[in-house]
């Protein structure tokens, strides 16, 4: 029965493409071509020139060996280390919410709330909370824990960790919602079966939940990994501007500073090109990975 | 027997995280409702006699202007993005376009490209075209950046529409535009709203491009304005907090209105990052 329908569909899709298809696609295509196409072309072009002269790959060599650039990339990688923490906490909270404790809807709403705040708002808010005479330190003093007070964003030794904590605070909710949605889509009989077999809370989640969550965790790792490597500009710019010194400098602020503060556009363009090449490699790896993986798992 | 303490621990963990999530937001709102004196006296206190002075100060500053700018940019760029992406998605789902599937796969790669890579070249072009500090240039950039995700998502949805419906309309003599506007669009309300909500949140919250391309006080967006605001009212924390609350309000409203769509957009196709 299904065969004729299938072949009819194929015939329809094999029909010759009319010219008007191009008209339908043109506006979207042109806007992508302008922003991405021209942008990528021009950034590479700028990276190959210095003060109007062609220098080949010389600029890229300079950037890669520039100590501040290396520091910035190192900070991006260290921010990436928060990923396992976010995932473990998000999984734990999703499972607790799934267990249907009393008031779980309120908890779900509360945990998700930070995720819908605009990042610049979060940045300014925590900038105020974490300063030396801010609300965190004054509440620590109020409860007699004044010894724990720090200059959270002003001390170069801990500024990056403070920044990472704020990112975790904000990003956690998305993971919880995503994991909870997946958990709720799992057949409940699985847990019944596990319970019949005598598995408790830990064993049933370890042996039943985790294996079934593998693909959604993989999806989340990709999304958050991209966020932590290349979308932290708003956090850093608002809270520390990369400081104190270069204690919280990341690749994005390095590019921004060189382009718009220090006015060295070729250095900024070269750093952007290095970042671009890194991303091309990652995207290629991802596409291969996707082609190998069964289609279902990305849904 | 052993379940009881387990439940207590589970509740305890949930409550701890709930407090951690809400406390900073509470600080923001409670500080915004008090005067500087009352705030300094007791930073965490409850606003027993709420005062709207901080909001008045914020609104007397350039806040309304920034709010208006953000609104113009958001509505303008999201409307254009939705229109163009729906056109393209319609073509991708209706006809077999040579190389179309590779184009769509390439869109995924574009979605993850950090915008900071494109900011420097586009700024150079903007200066050459004398287009810095104009809304139209920023709208063009926003539209381009939102386009890959939007086309990808809408194409995926349009392809699930039953071909029989479209064939029936064609049989009745409908042209492509009629099929698009009378058959496809009316069936696509939910995904279009999802896409609109996700994109609106992105533009509203965007900082980097707004900061680089809209530098003067009269063209600044709300998010860029907030960072300037923070420095201006460095010592008057209630005013800063009132500004933050005002900037969050439209987002909260949009979220509460589109909660269903918003969650679906995030969970279904959250490839947009920040």
Task: Summarize this structure as a short list of keywords or feature phrases.
heterodimer; A: 299 residues; mainly alpha; 75% helix; globular; B: 274 residues; 13 helices; 0% strand; disordered C terminus
Note the topology.
The complex is a heterodimer of chains A (299) and B (274).
Chain A: H1 2-14, H2 20-47, E1 49-50, E2 53-54, H3 58-65, H4 67-80, H5 82-98, H6 104-116, H7 119-130, H8 135-142, H9 159-185, H10 189-196, H11 201-230, H12 233-239, H13 251-261, H14 265-292
Antiparallel strand pairs in A: 1-2
Helix pairs in contact in A: 2-14, 3-14, 4-11, 4-13, 5-9, 6-9, 7-12, 9-11, 13-14
Chain B: H1 3-32, H2 36-41, H3 53-60, H4 63-94, H5 100-111, H6 116-128, H7 135-158, H8 163-171, H9 176-184, H10 189-205, H11 208-213, H12 222-232, H13 237-269
The greatest interface between two protein chains, and residues involved on each side, is: A-B, 96 and 90 residues
Question: What is the radius of gyration of chain A computed over CA atoms, rounded to a whole number of angstroms?
Answer: 25 Å
Helical proportion of chain A, percent range: over 70%
Report the sheet-strand fraction of chain B.
under 5%
What is the molecular shape of chain A? Answer: globular
Helical/strand content category of chain A: mainly alpha
Largest sheet of chain A: 2 strands, antiparallel
Order of helices and strands of chain B: HHHHHHHHHHHHH
Helix content of chain B: over 70%
Describe the global form of chain B.
Answer: globular
Order of helices and strands of chain A: HHEEHHHHHHHHHHHH
Radius of gyration of chain B: 23 Å
Q: Kindly report the average pLDDT value of chain B.
A: 84
Report the sheet-strand fraction of chain A.
under 5%
Say how many strands of chain B there are.
0
DSSP helical segment count of chain A: 14
Q: What is the terminal-to-terminal distance of chain A?
A: 28 Å
List the quaternary state of the chains. Answer: heterodimer
Termini separation of chain B comes to 46 Å
